[in-house]
Write a structure and sequence with these properties.
Shape: globular
Number of helices: 3
Distance between the termini: 46 Å
Structural class: alpha+beta
CATH topology: Multidrug-efflux Transporter Regulator, Chain: A, Domain 2
Mean pLDDT: 86
CATH architecture: Orthogonal Bundle
Length: 77
């Protein structure tokens, strides 16, 4: 696959770090299997593969959590 065919990932902020499935599961407080299922459905925090491993940008995980909290508030109103 050439560089032009690969999906573009946003540039991470300078202080960002990569998280593993296990680390995100602890942050979001769900089982790793739930994160895998969300990946299958295309929901949940945005992730990508590096080799065989799945990784998440820390800021994107917290942005996703923030969006989830805001969408719950909007559906109640």
């Amino acid at each position: 696959m050439s560089n032009t065919q690969r999906a573009a990932l946003p540039e991470p902020p300078q202080a960002d770090e990569l998280l593993t499935l296990q680390e995100v599961a602890v942050v979001v407080r769900v089982p790793v299997a739930t994160l895998r299922y969300w990946r299958h459905l295309g929901t949940g925090p945005r992730s990508f593969r590096i080799g065989r491993g799945v990784r998440y940008w820390r800021t994107e995980v917290f942005a996703w959590l923030h969006d989830q909290a805001n969408s719950d508030r909007q559906s109640v109103v």
